[in-house]
Amino acid sequence: MSKIIVTGGLGYIGSHTVVNLLEDGFDVVIVDDLSNSQHDILRRIETITGKQPEFLQLDISVRDNVMSVLRRHSDADAIIHFAASKAVGESVENPLLYYRNNLNSMIFLLEGMQETGIPNMVFSSSCTVYGQPDKLPVTESTPFRPAESPYGNTKQICEEIIRDVCNANKNIQAIALRYFNPVGAHDSHLIGELPRGVPNNLVPYITQTAAGILPELRIFGDDYDTPDGTPVRDYIHVVDLAIAHRVALRRLLDRRQKNNYEYFNLGTGNGYTVLEVVKAFEKATGVQLRYRIVARRPGDVEKIWADTTLANRELGWKAERSLHDMMKSAWEWQLHLRDHPELLGS
Ligand code: UFG
To answer: Which of 313, 332, 336, 315 minimizes the C-alpha distance to 324?
Structure first.
């Protein structure tokens, strides 16, 4: 049985991926500092899968912590590295926190891999590396644009670090997955996104507005060059994303890579405007949403969606869940949270 270390395994995408790995028979070790999750998510993963993964509550921006985990589990076959700070606005206010957390953890994990011989890594990257591309949809060869935020910069730098390390050390194999906009929740409604405070992202903002927690959705601008003037994104169901991690992992374990460092766009290939998302939510749930158009949000790109040809062909993976499915499951998760406010912490 392959053993996989999952950093950030109790987070939003991490927890869905852990469920998928456990269901597929992998032995999983979760490392998470609970800075953006709750211990109860572990219990919920166990409820869904009937399995009990090992859990280590550790901050991996501290070198000794990383080394102790990797030495103890030097028989691991791979690391899936989710753990990172991810709020764009917070990264602008506190850049050092982002550079420390996101870069240190990457450097220490790669050092630990070199020392212990753990050969494989799957890394959480983001479409943020592309900024606003000139040509749409974006392919993996679309060049990086200067990052809009320290958060985005850490994703670019982490990819560059992995590339350089893979160049220098052919014993290390890595795949970076560039996520578009992950939304939705697991079918069980036992795990999902746990936004801290007022959400920044569109879908949790929509569901909290619909639940009456927030008074109205503010739509940031309707004067973009898009079909209805609101920005276009490629929303992808978190369960599809979780499956892509397992598939990428198998590619590494089966040594099917073309190069020891590869990167793939993970989206559906469909772009939707903010207003289309609002309409899809209303249709999927029967709930009317209060919304208002306000000024543009600084730093927002106008439109972006993925060319997923490479992931479809090389990984043999395709996102299958529709925008309707995403909205329905996001709403069901919001209803579950209403009955379990303890999940959002104190
Ligand atoms: N939006 C609103 N109102 C809100 C929240 C969002 O109108 O209350 C709009 C945004 O303006 C944007 C769209 O909804 O047009 C999506 O916004 P999100 O914040 O959900 O997602 P972003 O595309 O801005 O952010 C995502 C990831 C980030 C990443 C960024 C890179 O969440 O981690 O893409 O572009 F850095």
So the answer is: 332
How many residues does the structure list for the chain?
346
What was the pLDDT predicted at 196?
86
Q: What is the pLDDT of residues 88-116, one digit of tens each?
A: 999 999 999 999 999 999 999 999 999 99
CA distances from 264 to 112, 118, 210, 314 (A): 24, 22, 34, 9
Q: Tell the residue nearest (CA) to atom 21 of ligand 1.
A: 201
Contacts of 38 (CB under 8 A, 6+ apart): 10, 194, 342, 343, 345
Protein residue with its CA nearest to atom 6 in ligand 1: 202
Q: What is the pLDDT of residues 213-255, one digit of tens each?
A: 999 999 999 999 999 999 999 999 999 999 999 999 999 999 9
Phi/psi for 236 (5° steps) reads -130, 135
Closest CA to 246 of 78, 91, 86, 92: 78
pLDDT single digits (tens) 293-334: 999 999 899 999 999 999 999 999 999 999 999 999 999 999
DSSP-derived secondary structure for 9-73: TTSHHHHHHHHHHHHTT-EEEEE---TTS-THHHHHHHHHHS---EEE---TTSHHHHHHHHHHT
Active site (annotated) includes residue 130: no
For 36, other C-beta atoms within 10 Å of its C-beta total: 20
Q: Is 174 helix (H, G, I), strand (E, B) or coil?
A: strand
Ligand 1 is surrounded, with C-beta below 6 A, by 86, 88, 126-128, 151-152, 181, 200-202, 205, 217-220, 231, 233, 274, 297, 300-301
Q: Which atom of ligand 1 is nearest to the CA of 183?
A: 20
Query: In sequence order, what are the beta bridge partners of 121?
Result: 79, 174
Catalytic residue among 98, 151, 224, 272: 151
| Confidence (pTM) | 0.98
